[in-house]
Amino acid sequence: MNIKRISFLILFLLIAFLPSCNKENSSHSNRVIIGISSDIESTNPLFAFTPNEGNISELLYLSLVQFDWDKQKGELIPKPMLAKDWYWNADSSSITLDLRNDVYWSDGVQFTANDVVFSFDVYSDPVVQSSLYGTFKNFYTDTSLHIDINKTFTVESPFKIKINFKKGSIPNFVDIGLPLIPEHVFKNVDRKNLITTEKDMKPVTDGPFYLSNWEKNQAIILKANKKSFLHKSSGLSELIFKVVPDYSSRIMQLKRDEIDLTEDIEAGDVAQLKNISSLVISPIDGRDYDYAAWNNIDPDAYKRNKIIPNKIFGDEKVREAFTFAINRQEIVHDFLNDLGQVASGPVSPIFKNALDTMLKPLPYDPDEAKRILAADGWKDVNQDGILEKGNQKLSFTFYIPSGNPRRKYAATIIKNDLRKIGADIKIESLEPQVFFQRMFAHELNAWMAGWSVPIPLDLKSPWYSDLKNTPLNVYGYQSKAADVILNLIVHEKSSKQRDQLYKKFQELLYKDNPVTFLYWVDNIVAYNRRIKNISITPLGDVEHCWNWSITK
User: Fold this and answer.
1) Are residues 37 and 149 in the same domain?
2) CA-closest candidate to residue 167, choices 268, 93, 274
3) Pairing mode, if any, of strands 395-401 and 424-430?
4) At what angle do helices 316-325 and 366-375 cross, to 10 degrees?
5) How far apart are CA 266 and CA 246, in angstroms?
6) pTM, to two decimals
7) What is the CATH number of the domain that holds 12?
8) Chain segment 45-85, per-residue pLDDT in tens
9) Does 237 share its domain with 298?
10) Same structural domain for residues 171 and 248?
C-alpha cells in the first residue's frame, strides 16, 4: 500500500514478451499487463518515491501487516502478513508480534525478527534519506529522527519481537506497515552509497512476486513466487508493468487488449470505453482535490522572516467572496463529466466517520460575492470594472503548473468568474519544477494546485501555523484555534473523539476559507473483464493482486 514510496539486458526475452502482448496472447495467458506512464527508478522500497515504485516494491518485499479498506467506515483494516498474530499492551504503548517461520528470502535465507529491526534502522537513518525518513514520530528517536533501536525493539526470539512506542504517542498499524528488507544483503553496504549501490545488486526479495526482467523505459516484468505463502495455484503467473508514456497510446492499447489495466483515465474517454464489452470502468472515490490558493501571508514580508497578512488575501472576506464567485460545479460537470464532486474542505468523502456532511459547499452566487466585497470596502472608484480598497487594486497573477489540461481549463473558468465580480486576473503558466519551488517558498500570491490526502488522514502537516515545521502549509494559513484542535487530534486515542475534532477543524476552515476548495477528482481505472477477484479501492489498483485470477 502506498501510504506515504539492475537493468537486465535480455532483449530477446522482451521481444518475446511485449510485442506478443496482443489481443490473442493477452486473452489466453495467465499474465496481466498494466500500462504505466513512466519507468521507475528503483524496485527497493527504501527509495519508492513514486506511486508506481511503491506498488512494485510492495509486491517484492513483504510487510508485517497488510491492509483492507472498509468502505462503509472509511478506514483501514489491518490483517496478518509477516506477523501472523499480535498483542497490544494495556495502554497501547507497545505491541508484541508473532512472526511467520515459513518465509524465506529468494536466496534461501530465512526471514527473522532481525530483518525487522534492521529495516526500521535503515529507513530512519538520515544518511540513507529513504522515502519514509522523518515519518517515525511515534517511535523513540534521536535528534536526527533516527529510531533508537535499543529503546524501541526487543527481540524475544527469531520469530517474536516487541516494539515499544514513544510515551504519549498514539501508534497504529500503519507505523509498522512498511516493506521490510533483508539484513544479510544490506548490512555490509555503506549506507552513504546505498541509493546508488542497490541498483547494481540483484534484488533479494520475499514477496508474492519476484523481479524477472527490467528493461529500462520498456517494462518491469514480475513473476509469481510459487514458494510464497500468498501464492495461489489459480493466481497470476506474471505481472507486467509496461511503460507507455503517451496517454493516447495507452488508451489505444487498452482497447486492443495489448494492456489489461491502466489508471488515470480522462473523464472524456469514459463514455467510449464503457461501450467496449471487454472492459470494466471503475472510478475510485477521490483522495485528490484541486484548490485555488490565496496566500494568507505577505510573500515579501516572509522573505524577511516576518509573517503578516497578505495585502489582498489576508482578509477572510475576500477569500469567502471568491469561493462564492467560482462556479465549481461547472468544472465538475463540463470537464470531469461529473466523475468528481465539489469540495467543501480537505477531508475526503472516503473518510466516512471524519467527514462533516453538514458542511455543504458554498453555492455559486456571484451576487453574494459582490455583496461581501462591497460590505468589506471594495469599490470600483474609477469605474474601470476593477474593484479597489484604498490604494490596493483587486488585481493579481494566478499561477498554474504547465502541462495540466484540467487546471488550465479550471483556471480559465476562475479568471472569467472573478472578472464578473470586479477582480482582474492574469493567468501565468510555469514549468512544474519552477512552480512548485516558488509555491513552497511562499513566493506566489495566488495559484492553483492539488493535494492527495494520505491514509490515515493527516491534517496537521498542511494546516498547522508553524511554517518551518509544517512546510506543506504552502498557503500560510494562521489560526491559533485550528492549531489547538490539530494538537488535540495528534494526542487523542479515541477514534470517535478524533472524528469529532476533525469535524470541528472542518468548521473552522469552512469559516476561514484559507483556500477555495474546488473539487474532488475520481481516479478512473479501466481493466479487462477477464481479471477476476480484483478490488479497486482508495488503497490502489494493484493492491492484493496476488489474489487475482484470469478467466480463460
Assistant:
1) no
2) 93
3) parallel
4) 160
5) 13
6) 0.84
7) 3.40.190.10
8) 999 988 899 999 999 999 999 999 998 888 899 999 999 99
9) no
10) no
